[in-house]
Amino acid sequence: QVQLVESGGGLVEPGESLTLSCFASASDITFGIYTMGWYRQSPGKEHEFVANITWNGDTTTYADAVNGRFTISRDNAKNMVYLQMNNLKPEDTAVYYCNAELGALTYRGQGTQVTVSS
Fold first, then answer.
1. What is the pLDDT of residues 63-110, one digit of tens each?
2. Backbone region of residue 96 per phi and psi (left: phi > 0; alpha: psi in -120 to 50; beta: other values)
3. How far is the C-alpha of 30 from the C-alpha of 102, rounded, in Å?
4. How far is CA 93 from CA 2, 34, 75, 76, 86, in A?
5. I need a surface site. Which of 48, 104, 107, 109 has the fewest CB within 10 A?
């Protein structure tokens, strides 16, 4: 069982940066084997993949819409995963969810709101 808590959302202007954090309430050993990721959902739109990172951090994958602007990272010693978001755009406005995957198991947090507006 993994419980995820996101933080760091807020209101920013276009072009600014924001870092999201996600804490996983799992044992250090358990957390370290999950692929961690971020998804987002805007009003009227489906859940959208944003980025993920493998258990050891060797491989990261990004959606085309955020590639080059967002960076995902993790600290297995702290049970944390991060999403650094640079050059934010109004279309990045959404609720961002932290995600943990291991085979058929998937856990998702409650989400944190990110609003990009001038």
1. 999 999 999 999 999 999 999 999 999 999 999 999 999 888 899 999
2. beta
3. 10
4. 26, 27, 26, 28, 13
5. 104
